Amino acid sequence: MPPRLFIFGYGFSARALTRLLQPQGWIISGSYRTSAQPLRDDGVIPVAVGDQAALDTALAEATAVLITAPPTAEGCPALPLIVPSLRRTSSAPPWLGYLSTTGVYGDRGGGWVFEDSRLAAQSMEGTRRVAAERDWLEIGRHMDLTVTVHRLPGIYGKGRSTLDRLRAGNARRLMAPGQVFSRIHVDDLARGLMASMSRPRAWGIYNLCDDWPAPNSEVVTYAADLLGINPPPEEVLDLTALRPQARRFYGESKRVSNARAKGELGWRPVYPTYREGLTAILAAGG
Predict the structure, then answer these.
(1) 122: burial class by Cβ within 10 Å (0-12, 13-18, 19+)?
(2) What are residue 263's phi and psi, to 5 degrees?
(3) pTM for the full predicted model
(4) Smallest Cα–Cα separation from 82: which of 31, 14, 138?
(5) Residue 282: inside a domain
(6) Is residue 122 a part of any domain in this protein?
(7) Per-residue pLDDT tens digits for 22-52
């Protein structure tokens, strides 16, 4: 039987993983709430969130399960749907991955964070991720499931990068001395998940990010150079003038270590900095 992956929350990251797994013979199914067509276009078997029988079947057949949907005020939306289905199956998937965020660490003033660093989420979204991580790890313990958590920084890739924002005219070069962010190319994220699936470890928690935390202004300047255009003018960061989502992002500064993922999973980012990532995107027509 070919290996099967079920994805709860089929989007940008899940699509990148699908592109890697399908040529290896994996059968992918994914949940949807409004339209099944984007999944069908990618060769993914659509499973309506409200179709409990189809969900039961997908989970009973799954070799791996990936949860990408963000939590709400009520918690992870996958929990009340997936856990009852798993309890009805005769066997558990060998790997269940939950996508979280490095926002669970909060602001560290540019300092390094590791998987065992104290969680100090500052935003509502980060706080919800902390709770969702805890819930899934507890479910794993109680149900003897191999649950892994993958904490992600800003994700970029073809169609979703600084290059696109520059072309659209909405990129900003915000200057804040000492402020840095980690990031990851979506294809490196997919490779990290594949590595985790091949080496499942119960309660494994991994930061998946590149090797070079960098300030926003540096990335925007480099992307503009690639496009042969002038970068937008420098702006002094003013958190009060930003929209809430941007205010949450720019209100934190930290360097995220990926040493555990490298050591335990044998994973290495193909794009170790934003330079390689943006250059590859442009070369691919992105």
Answers:
(1) middle
(2) -75, -45
(3) 0.95
(4) 31
(5) no
(6) yes
(7) 999 999 999 999 999 999 999 999 999 999 9
In a domain, 154, yes or no: yes
Q: Count the domains in the chain.
A: 1
Which residues constitute the domain of residue 106? 4-158+183-211+254-271
CATH number at residue 60: 3.40.50.720
Other Cβ atoms less than 10 A from the Cβ of 73: the count is 6
Q: Which residue has the tokens 């920084």?
A: 153
Question: Is 143 domain-assigned?
Answer: yes
Tokens 């991994």 identify what position? 206
Quick: pLDDT tens for 168-182: 999 999 888 889 999
In SS3 terms, 196-222 reads as HHHCCCCCEEEECCCCCCECHHHHHHH
* pLDDT number for residue 246: 74
Q: Which residues contact 274 (CB under 8 A, 6 or more apart)?
A: 156, 162, 183, 210, 212, 214, 219, 222
How far apart CA 143 and CA 256 sit, in angstroms, is 31
How far apart are the C-alpha atoms of 5 and 13, rounded to whole Å? Answer: 14
CA dist., res. 181 & res. 185, Å (int): 13
Q: What's the rounded Cα separation, in Å, for the pair 281 and 286?
A: 5
Q: Quote the CA–CA distance of 87 and 31 in Å, as a whole number.
A: 19
Residue 182 in contact with residue 209, Cβ under 8 Å?
A: yes
Q: Which residues pair with 184 in a beta bridge?
A: 155
